[in-house]
């Protein structure tokens, strides 16, 4: 397990860990269960370092590719994160954050098509966009960046608590035939290349 965890982890992990101490004295099974919950929460919010490839648009999240589609002349790639995946979202490209917009919505399962209408946060870079989409259980989206900031490829943009999806609306120069991953494939945030960057865009 990585020693680094996301901001706010201990707000979730501390209660069961603290309660586990007296519970172990009163009831060993209950105490062990609380201890296991606390450890599981810390593991869920782990935030490991990543090694960037030399070039290319990188995946925004760990998980399974659930969306690869054309959308108004652009290509959208979505990554579904289950409870065992790292939930830290990373920048697919260098860019300047033009805006960070929160949109209320439903809380459908993040792997379903209906999740397009879920609560979300869109980070707009002008040339591309990254969306944090909450799942049916997730209720906490935590962006780390705001409008007016410059962001480096692979930089942490934020995290989502408990089950979710992260989308990238690729730049206009990216064609669906250029995408190097496919639906159902597992990817790693900041490491898996979604599409290679043209030389004149690097």
Automatic annotation (TrEMBL):
InterPro entries: PS_Dcarbxylase, PSD-A. The keyword Lipid biosynthesis applies. The chain crosses the membrane at residues 20-45. The keyword Transmembrane helix applies. Keywords: Cell membrane, Decarboxylase, Lipid biosynthesis, Lipid metabolism, Lyase, Membrane, Phospholipid biosynthesis, Phospholipid metabolism, Pyruvate, Transmembrane, Transmembrane helix, Zymogen. GO terms for molecular function: phosphatidylserine decarboxylase activity. NCBIfam families: anchor_synt_D, PRK05305.2-3. This is Phosphatidylserine decarboxylase. It holds the Pfam family PS_Dcarbxylase. It comes from the Archaea. GO terms for biological process: phospholipid biosynthetic process. It comes from Halogranum amylolyticum.
């Amino acid at each position: 397990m990585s020693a680094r965890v996301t901001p706010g982890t201990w707000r979730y992990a501390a209660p069961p860990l603290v309660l586990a101490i007296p519970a172990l004295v009163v009831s060993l099974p209950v105490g062990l269960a609380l201890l296991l919950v606390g450890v599981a929460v810390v593991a869920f919010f782990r935030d490991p370092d990543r090694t960037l490839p030399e070039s290319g648009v990188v995946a925004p999240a760990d998980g399974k590719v659930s969306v690869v589609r054309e959308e108004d002349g652009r290509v959208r790639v979505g990554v579904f994160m289950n409870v065992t995946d790292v939930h830290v979202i990373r920048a697919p490209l260098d860019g300047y954050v033009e805006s960070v917009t929160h949109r209320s919505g439903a809380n459908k399962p993040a792997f379903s098509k209906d999740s397009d209408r879920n609560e979300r946060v869109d980070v707009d870079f002008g040339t591309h966009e990254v969306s944090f989409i909450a799942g049916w259980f997730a209720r906490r989206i935590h962006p780390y960046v705001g409008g007016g900031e410059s962001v480096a490829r692979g930089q942490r943009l934020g995290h989502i608590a408990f089950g979710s999806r992260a989308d990238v609306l690729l730049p206009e120069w990216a064609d669906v035939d250029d995408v190097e991953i496919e639906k159902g494939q597992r990817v790693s945030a900041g490491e898996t290349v979604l599409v290679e960057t043209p030389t004149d865009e690097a």
